[in-house]
Amino acid sequence: MIAFIVRRVLQSVFVLLIMSLLVFVGIYAIGNPVDILINPEATQSERAATIVAFGLDKPMWVQYGLFLQSAVAGDLGRSFAYSTPALTLIAQRLPATLELAVVAMLVSILLGVPLGLWAGLRRDGFAGRTIMSLSILGFSLPTFWVGLMLIMLFSVNLGWLPSSGRGQTVEWLGIPLSFLTLDGLKHLVLPALNLSLFNIALVIRLTHSGTQEAMLQDYVKFARAKGLASRRIIGVHVLKNILIPIVTVIALQFGALIAFAIVTESIFAWPGIGKLIIDSIRVLDRPVVVAYLLLTVTLFIVINLIVDVLYSVLDPRVRLSDARG
Amino acid sequence: MTEAPAVTPTDIETPFRRFLRSYLASKVAVFGLVLLALVLFAAIAGPFLAPQNPYDLKVLDVMDSRLAPGGVSGDGKMTFLLGSDEQGRDMVSAILYGIRTSVLVGVVSTAIALVIGLSLGLWAAYLGGRFDGFVMRLVDIQLSFPPILIALILLALTGPGLGKIIVALVAVKWAYYARSARSIALVERRKEYIEAATCLGLSINRIIFKHLLPNCLTPLLAVTALQVASAITLEATLSFLGLGLPPTEPSLGLLISNGSQYLMSGKYWISVFPGVALLVVVVAINLVADQLRDVLNPRLQTQ
Q1: Chain B closest CA to A50's CA: distance in Å?
Q2: Which of residues 206 through 265 in chain A touch B, CB cutoff 8 A?
Q3: CB B153 within 8 A of CB A23
Q4: Above 80 in pLDDT, residue B79?
Q5: Is the distance from CB of B300 to CB of A174 less than 8 angstroms?
């Protein structure tokens, strides 16, 4: 058990190192940040001073070494464009992304489960088949295009909802939040819906198949024989049994939501880390790009590590087969 | 014409005919096939069908910019059926060129990824041991990241470009094929014909590519078709974000991105029509792939 966890942790650290090297070397190779950061009319000595200030004059491996050293110390460099530490910049934007991702996750469950239940209970009916066809669309429609269509319909044509920004925010424990004000809530509706589209379809599918399986189980027959109302059988007994796998799958999707927020945030000008990374790539703001990628990669590695270790605790077959392979 | 004796279809049914019959049984799938044929026709014949070359700056006139669908150009020579964009580019032509690029990127990246993933998956399944462990660990690690993140890392490193986006898509997709090919091949390699080939003393590569490969291809076909659609969507998404194709390359994602600035002012056509084209491409491929999966899956066959 300990050996398994130690090996998984070592493997995670190794992946992280490889990723950081890949990201660092690549960003270094695509262009010279000096050209973008320095005013073209700057004098030669001003240029030289800036290059030294950012450490761009040192050999690449020295820069990587310094970078790694400070990364371990929690310092991922200063943003070229904002002149603030990259980590601070990301930390400032992170609450917006997390808020969006959490709301999107809730939306996918609150919309997906009832729709999936409905489709699962009336699978031959018109409503059931329509819901299932729409869920296929949810898988195959490009997210960014649906986002634009949402803006066109609800912001431009109907004028009901705003299409960009976070709206009015309220500070709670020092963190700005949108969903506590009516204006913020209005700003949240379209991005959250857009981001959750794929997961709504996923939850519908899972609930649909779960319901169909559960309805054939003996406990449902027993509950019926006992004379319980359908509402109670479905709302309490069936739902309790099918929710566990759904919640597990959706929780695993949380990392993917943060990654996909890149698209949604760009469309709705949501000031989170997704928009930040796209803007930073455009201006070659190297420290921010590196910090974002490292942070996201770390997040994923940690999530996967936790899932692996939890599974190995719950199911010894996983770690035994791993030891043999 | 001689009178042939009536033959029931089942008497002469070859595997291909049986495949055709079960494919054509679904009306939706036939619709998807027709749609796909139209898309492929547009992709191949696009430059001949298009009223203008939308990337030839000489034929564009800024005076014709942002005309509504049906608008006529300043010199009266040209009618913009689906309107024009901010550079006076005919949307019909731009969309035809865009479909061509999307299909090209989707097909080429899928083909390369398939060759790499399939080879690695088959070798892993056949050789087992360390090689298998190494390849599958690599696949596991890669599949634990969302595709868009991997593509983003690579494109942030390399910058936009046609070749670069194909490389990024290959890097994202190979793992799917490696995993599917390995799981199919693990079942196949236990069968007697592989044992027979081994007894004949054939070389490993000959056994893998001449005997194992053909028997693993059919189940992979549906996976591959679905992945083409997903590659096209990913390319469009990345181009929309400004990371995929450079502005000099016609791309549906880029067209949608250009048009999105004008959405707020009600000039919907610059963004909406390329989006509809992208939708048609993706839905057509998905419809065909869905039916292929059902038809090729022996477990679902009713007879």
Answers
A1: 23
A2: 255-256, 259-260, 262-263
A3: yes
A4: no
A5: no
